[in-house]
Design goal:
This protein is 48% helix and 14% strand. It is of the alpha+beta class and 256 residues long. The strands form two sheets. Strands 1-6-2-5 form a four-stranded antiparallel sheet, with helices on both faces. Strands 3-4 form a two-stranded antiparallel ribbon.
Length: 256
């Protein structure tokens, strides 16, 4: 890992996008869990039981659900010109979300899905352990231990990521006005009948998956400035780099 290049791969939150370079390069959107002290702190009910553990489980389960892979549109043909068409939906991921949220998960269920039940229970049992896990998840895991949601390129990084954010904010406002609209966006993008009234873009995919603008941050690399090369060469390099990175990493909210 070249520390000089790594140092120039800059992170920007939603309120910092006016500082993104007006240069050609590549960028990647990541999701960061929003977990505050109220989500993991010890909270004792009238019977003396700490319900902070279940609150923390709920936060982890909600964030995990956002990474559920979209359904796949498939078509099968045989030699006699018959065609079968439809959509395949993930069958296991929802069970992972339930496993995080369900303290009473049986050992058999946990072993079936390779869920670390004992370790998870131990790490979630005390306020101190929940705090440690939060620190790692929010401060250390992104982006070094995280997969990008979306990888793109642009001749003007600032314009491009601000366009993304404007779309994210627009569709998030739609959800704020009517939470049921998220299901309609999801159906329009991933249902059996594609609805062209909802554009198939990063923002709508992110909102349909349950992300909000505050969950997201973008990392950008100004290739011309980093390598000291002309901008036209930097754009060509960005185009090749974007294709390779998308092919290798297949970000879940990337273009098909």
């Amino acid at each position: 890992m070249d520390p000089e290049i790594l140092a120039k791969f800059k992170r920007f939150g939603p309120t910092e996008l006016d500082q993104v370079p007006i240069k050609p390069g590549v960028y990647a959107w990541y999701a960061k869990p929003q977990i505050g002290p109220a989500d993991w702190a010890r909270a004792v009910d009238a019977n003396g039981a700490d319900f902070g553990e279940q609150a923390f489980r709920s936060v982890l389960a909600k964030h995990t659900s956002r990474f559920t892979p979209p359904s796949l549109r498939v078509a099968a043909h045989n030699a006699f010109r018959d065609t079968w068409e439809g959509r395949l939906t993930p069958s296991v991921y929802d069970r992972h979300v339930v496993a995080i949220n369900k303290k009473e998960l049986s050992e058999i269920e946990a072993n079936t899905m390779k869920f670390p039940k004992a370790s998870m229970e131990k790490m979630l049992l005390s306020e101190r352990q929940r705090g440690r896990m939060t620190q790692l998840l929010t401060s250390a895991a992104t982006p070094l231990l995280a997969s990008p949601l979306y990888i793109g390129k642009s001749v003007d990084l600032r314009r491009r990521v601000n366009d993304h954010f404007a779309d994210l904010d627009k569709w998030h406002q739609v959800i704020q006005r009517d939470p049921n609209h998220r299901d309609r966006i999801r159906a329009a993008l991933f249902g059996s009948d594609r609805n062209t009234s909802v554009p198939d873009i990063f923002a709508t995919r992110a909102i349909a998956s349950g992300f909000s603008p505050d969950n997201l941050e973008v990392y950008v690399l100004d290739i011309a400035g980093t390598l000291g090369i002309p901008e036209d060469s930097a754009l060509e390099l960005a185009e090749a780099l974007e294709w390779l990175l998308n092919t290798w990493h297949r970000p879940i909210l990337g273009r098909a």
